[in-house]
Amino acid sequence: MAMTGLVKDELSRVTVLKPCCRKAEVSTLLRFAGGLHLAGGRIVVEAELDTGAAARRLRKDVSEVFGHACGLTRSTCRLRLSLVMVT
C-alpha cells in the first residue's frame, strides 16, 4: 500500500466527536469526492472513495449527523456512496 493509502486508512479511523467537526468532514468529502445529479426528480449526491473504511465512515456520519440513509456500491476499484434526497 502506498503512503497515501496508509494515511487515508489512518485518518478514516480517527474518532471525531464534535458535531461541527463531523459536518465539516462530511462536507469536505462530498466536495472533493462527490457530485450532484438529478435522477427521476430527485437530487442524488454521490461520492467515490478508494477505501472501504472511508466510505463506511461517510455513510455512518451522513446518517447520524444529517439523518439521511445512504447506500454503498462497489465498482472495480472504488466504493460509491449514494445519497438520494427528495426535493
Terminal CA distance reads 41 Å
What is the CATH C-level name? Answer: Alpha Beta
Write the CATH fold name: Endonuclease I-creI
* Count of strand segments: 4
Q: What is the total number of structural domains?
A: 1
Which term fits the overall shape?
globular
- The percentage helix is 40-55%
Structure description:
- 46% of the residues lie in helices and 30% in strands.
- It is built from three helices and four strands.
- It has a four-stranded antiparallel β-sheet with strand order 1-2-4-3.
- Strand 1 and strand 2 form a beta hairpin.
- The N and C termini lie far apart (41 Å).
- The model has no long low-confidence stretch (mean pLDDT 81).
Summarize the structure.
This protein has helices spanning 3-12, 19-33, 52-66, and strands at residues 34-39, 42-49, 70-74, 79-85. It is an alpha+beta fold.
How are the elements arranged and paired?
Layout: H1 3-12, H2 19-33, E1 34-39, E2 42-49, H3 52-66, E3 70-74, E4 79-85
Helix pairs in contact: 2-3
